[in-house]
């Protein structure tokens, strides 16, 4: 039987894990190495992929998990594929609802509706089904309304390590001047449809 080195095993594990990625604890257990050894190994793996222009993927860390991602330099090619109409693209209502949850979490459906001014049953259901949001608890008030927050998949879709990397909200957007908010929603939409 061929004996593989740790680097090859780590590649196989990352490929198998796919979008879910692997936390350092999972890698230390699978490779039977210390945290420091795994960190050094993953750093070496990241460098080798990053510096090799013949490869279209690299190793990144999102939500404290290592995973394979496409190289940002190749984003134009990926956008050509992503820009073709897709039935799975989020609607404007879905994007607005997702943005409200991302910035105000934990938040109830009623609080989302207060911001949007319309019912959000459909968009919330869609976002839950796609794994972009989840129930994170119950409100302490009357009725114990469900509180919603974003998921690790949300971070993955936007290519963020954590919520602190979200773009800043536009300030002082007047009702008839929607240019800033349109740009914000467009960047959020691009992040969700062009995960690179």
Keywords:
alpha+beta, Arc Repressor Mutant, subunit A, 5 strands, 196 residues, two-stranded antiparallel ribbon, three-stranded antiparallel beta sheet, 2 domains
CATH superfamily of the largest domain: Winged helix-like DNA-binding domain superfamily/Winged helix DNA-binding domain
Strand order of the largest sheet: 3-5-4
| First and last CA, distance | 37 Å
Give the oligomer, counting copies of the same chain as homo and different chains as hetero.
single chain
One letter per element, helices H and strands E, the order comes to HHHEEHHEHHEEHH
CATH class of the largest domain: Mainly Alpha
CATH fold-type name of the largest domain: Arc Repressor Mutant, subunit A
Number of strands: 5
Strand content: 5-15%
Helix content: 40-55%
Number of domains: 2
Low-pLDDT segments, ≥5 res? 173-181
Mean pLDDT: 82
Secondary-structure arrangement, i.e. CATH architecture of the largest domain: Orthogonal Bundle
For the CA atoms, what is the radius of gyration?
Answer: 20 Å
Number of helices: 9
Shape, please?
Answer: elongated
